[in-house]
Amino acid sequence: MKVKICLIGKGTVGKCFLELLNKKLPIFKHKFDIDIVIVGIFEIDGGLVNKSGLNIRKVIEMDKDFRKLNDWKFNINPLDLISKIDVDICIETTPTNPETGEPALSHIKAAIKNGIHIIASNKGPFYLKYKEIKELANKNACLIQYEATVASGVPILSIKKSLGASKIKAIRAILNGTSNYILSRMASEGIDFSIALKEAQELGYAEADPTLDIEGYDAAGKLVILANELLGWSKSIQDVKIRGISKITPQAIELAKSDGYIIKHLAIAENNSLIVEPRLIENYSALNISGTLNVIELKTEYMGSIVLMGRGAGGYEAASAILNDLFYICDFLKKDDNI
Question: Where are the domains of the chain?
Fold first, then answer.
């Protein structure tokens, strides 16, 4: 069985995915008897297209010079070709636009309308238009996998499949590594917010414009995805009460420490409400993690609290989540083919 894929976005995540896929191709063949063929790789200025399949190894070897390959064509758009190159799965890894979700939203909708399954690392479309995407996918009998949108390689969305008998009732989490790093440094060294932020930027943990991270919008988007997927809600980022960390002072942190608490930027989904804001938590709490890690606590109906922790960002971490989603869809396609 041959499964044809197109990749939209060859940035850090897309590049890492190609590397991991190239290593795992024998597993797809052995486990599912499936040949994975990439027929298109698109960037903002054009794409690599070959209906018989691109040479993945060659694309990897060329690295940033991939546009020199014979299959490269300038000024082509995935929206124009997605229905013409016979694709089974579309992998969307373009950067997130927090205002519109574009161009990823259009890519995803176009693929679904053409009966193409979706794997995405771009969270914007899912915290802005979750209900619309889900309804469109159901109408066209398409699978949508987006594990990499929240906490990268931490398998938080897929855990729902293992908890069928125990309903998830609430979520508390730290979902932004930049904010957590800043608060961790302020707590351990007693430094001002501005100094901790500058340090995070110098280390590459924070963007030149860190607004989405420190003001809570990144965490809010991820919380919406978690709540919709794990709690069965139908929310958007407009439903989240958001407060950032830029006004937290060393004095406030020291006062909390003197009472046995620490300040963390929590994302909370419970009682039909979504909140992202600084909260006091006990020093012994499972949510008291340092550095750039993410942590998610699920409060369940019969199993108490379940805590997952791991790296919440990174090219290979996100690519690993995409690869797991690809395994899931290939398993489905193989079973469906055998019916």
Answer: 2-153+316-338, 159-311
CA distance 213 to 215: 6
Which residues contact residue 27 at a Cβ distance below 8 angstroms, ignoring those fewer than 6 apart? none
> Which residues 6+ apart lie within 8 Å of 22 measured at CB?
56, 57, 60
Instruction: Residue 275: count other Cβ atoms within 10 Å of its Cβ.
Output: 18
The dihedral region occupied by 25, where left means phi > 0, alpha psi between -120 and 50, and beta the remainder, is: alpha
User: Could you tell me the CA-to-CA distances from 18 to 29, 49, 97, 120 in Å, in that order?
Assistant: 16, 15, 23, 14
Residue type for position 268: I
Strand partners, 279: 264
CA 21 – CA 322 distance, rounded (Å): 10
Q: Could you tell me the fold of the domain covering 2-153+316-338?
A: Rossmann fold (3.40.50)
The answer to whether 89 and 117 are in contact (CB under 8 A) is yes
**Which positions are annotated as active-site residues?**
222
Which residues, 6 or more positions from 221, have their beta carbon under 8 angstroms from its beta carbon?
Answer: 96, 98, 123, 124, 127, 237
Q: How confident is the model at residue 339 (pLDDT cuts 50, 70, 90)?
A: very low
pLDDT at 338: 59
Residue-wise pLDDT for 186-229, tens only, equals 999 999 999 999 999 999 898 889 999 999 999 999 999 999 99
pLDDT at residue 62 tops 60: yes
- Sign, Cα dihedral of 10, 150, 332, 84: negative
Which strands, in side-by-side order, build the sheet including 2-8?
72-74, 46-49, 35-43, 2-8, 89-92, 117-120, 144-145
Would strands 144-145 and 117-120 be described as parallel, antiparallel, or unpaired?
parallel
Topology of domain 159-311 in CATH is: Dihydrodipicolinate Reductase; domain 2 (3.30.360)
Convert the pLDDT of each residue in 142-172 to its tens digit: 999 999 999 988 999 999 888 878 899 999 9
pTM here is 0.94
